[in-house]
Amino acid sequence: MKEDLLHFIWKYKKYPVNGLMSTSGEAVHVVKAGMHNHLSGPDFFNAQIELNGQLWAGNVEIHIKSSDWYAHHHQDDTNYDNVILHVVWEDDIAVYRKDGSEIPTLSLKEYIPLVVLNNYQNLFDSKNYNFINCENEFNEVDEFIKNNWLDRLFVERLEQKSIFIKELLDYTNNDWEQVLFLMLLKTFGSKINRDTFIDIGKSIDFSIIRKLNNKPLQMESLFLGQANLLGSIIEDDTYYNRLTKEYQYLKHKFNLIAAYKSPEFFRLRPSNFPTIRLAQLSAIYSKNNNLFHLLIENDAPNFSEVLKSGTSDYWETHFNFGKISKKSKKGISNSFLNLLMINTIIPLKFAYSRYKGGLENEKFLKMMSEIKKEENSIIANFGKLGTSIKSAKDSQTYLQLYNNYCSKDKCLDCAIGASLMNIKV
Q1: Burial level of 338, CB count in 10 A (0-12/13-18/19+)?
Q2: From CA 320, how far away is CA 216, in angstroms rounded?
Q3: Where would you tag: which of 147, 279, 337, 419 has the fewest CB atoms within 10 A of its CB?
């Protein structure tokens, strides 16, 4: 028995409505189960319970055993003074308030249908699955329930990303233009360098970015210099030396302090080297002023035209300084453009819409549905279950499902798992 199952049994009333008795013989009638609390304090707030016909209002605490009350030191915590009912699986000890009065206890052990326990055990039996708990029953869930839940998960994912955007808004004093800059840096940094790239962005007063518009050499020197990628002179590399000279000038003029940590090159494909990504982003900012308006506020932006700006000619024959490579264009690929849309543009548009009071969920569903799906092991494994994943809307949704529910065994918080338990979420 696990406590999360008891929470759901209580929350969704998977016990007889009539005939409940406390361990001390009081008739128990649940008027309101209360609001489920996922933070510290009692498990359910503002419940209403009739005990022998007397209506009580207060909180409900749930444990496997009654003695867990003392094991968790609730007797010393004033947050639990207003508990009116102690719901347990096994009543092994009486529990008292500070004033000496006994807290009524309801033991669920004798009231729960066997089918609920069997369904729960089957769902969490590790011998039955390789990928996710419900993989053998995944396709048995009603399509209406599944599709409604997946739509909710897509919005939930955007809302989750909005939390980070809110943090950036607080950091920038609500400068949406600077937030876009930091969000782009996060995506350009990819998984390995995203935190370092954000730190690079934070090391630059954004007013400097505005001042260097239409100055590509200085913009690139600023980005690369703040990333600690410009240093001593390299013989026979004229462009590098020009960048270094420009950066020294900017560093003195604006009192710049480079980011604490340099970006990583290890385990990255050359096209993802921080030199290339920073050169690409600097080209975007040197060619475009008021990027937030172009990409986020604009109702019909040409994302490809704005974001696929290419790089300076030097990078056509280099991936890093001092080493010539085979000539190739280093513009942003369509696949990387899709990542920018998925991880930066659409989340920012969603957050900005919410900021203005909009509720245009369908608009963002449509935008994400027009982007090619992501390819990774999680998406591949859902595909093996017979799931149709056609677009980024689908892949983002299933990533949210896996990362926030499946991998954390939060099946009872998931409409799919709850449906298999015959619990409506």
Answers
A1: middle
A2: 18
A3: 147
Count the neighbouring beta carbons within 10 Å of the beta carbon of residue 314.
Answer: 17
In whole angstroms, give the CA distance from residue 63 to residue 6. Answer: 8
Please provide the distance, in angstroms rounded to a whole number, between the alpha carbons at the two ends of the chain: 21
Which stretches of the chain drop beneath a pLDDT of 70? 126, 423-425
Write a three-state SS string for 63-108: EEECCHHHHCCHHHCHHHCCEEEEEEEECCCCCECCCCCECCEEEC
DSSP 262: P
Which residues, 6 or more positions from 1, have their beta carbon under 8 angstroms from its beta carbon?
64, 89
Q: Give the strand pairing for 83-90 and 54-65.
A: parallel
Please tell me the predicted confidence (pLDDT) of residue 171: 97
CB atoms within 10 A of CB 163: 9
Query: Amino acid letter at 215?
Result: K
Q: What is the pTM of this model?
A: 0.83
pLDDT of 425 reads 43
E strand or H helix at 31:
strand 27-32
What is the Cα–Cα distance from 242 to 233, expressed in whole angstroms?
9
Is residue 217 a contact partner of residue 210, using CB atoms and an 8 Å limit?
no
Domain edges within the chain: 3-112, 172-332
Joined tokens for residue 20: 């409940």
